[in-house]
Amino acid sequence: MGGEAERQSREGVEGKLGLDTDRAAYRKCCRQTNAILTASRRNFIRSQLDGAADSKQRRRVVKRLLHNDNRTTIPSADCAKLCSSFVQVFLTKLIK
């Protein structure tokens, strides 16, 4: 089972039973998943910086990595649907 999938399955068990052993296993999966994600991000940044041939390109890469200005705007109709689905999810959780 992959790190994220295992973490999610442990999360479900942890939430239902609340046992210390389940919590420890869940936290271990969380740490493993975080380590994998951190290593992946580190490798991505390293590959971007290694691909820059000179200091000008390196500055451009650093600026792009640090100052991501790509913002997406969700249409209002989609926002309304998203809000409604969030309400349903949280109401279902509160009722349980």
SSE topology sketch:
Blueprint: H1 3-17, H2 20-50, H3 55-66, H4 76-95
Fraction of residues in H or I helices: over 70%
User: What's the number of structural domains?
Assistant: 1
Number of helices: 4
- Can you write the helix and strand succession as a string? HHHH
Query: Structural class, please?
Result: mainly alpha
What characteristic shape results from the CA principal axes? Answer: flat
Oligomer: single chain
CA-based gyration radius: 20 Å
Characterize the biggest β-sheet. none
What fraction of residues sit in β-strands?
A: under 5%
Kindly report how far apart the N and C termini lie: 28 Å
State the total count of DSSP E strands: 0
Query: Averaging pLDDT over every residue, what do you get?
Result: 83
In short:
The chain has 96 residues and is mainly alpha-helical. The protein has helices spanning 3-17, 20-50, 55-66, 76-95. The protein is flat, with a radius of gyration of 20 Å.
Description:
- With 96 residues, the chain is mostly helical.
- It has one domain.
- It has helices at 3-17, 20-50, 55-66, 76-95.
- The radius of gyration is 20 Å and the shape is flat.
- The model has no long low-confidence stretch (mean pLDDT 83).
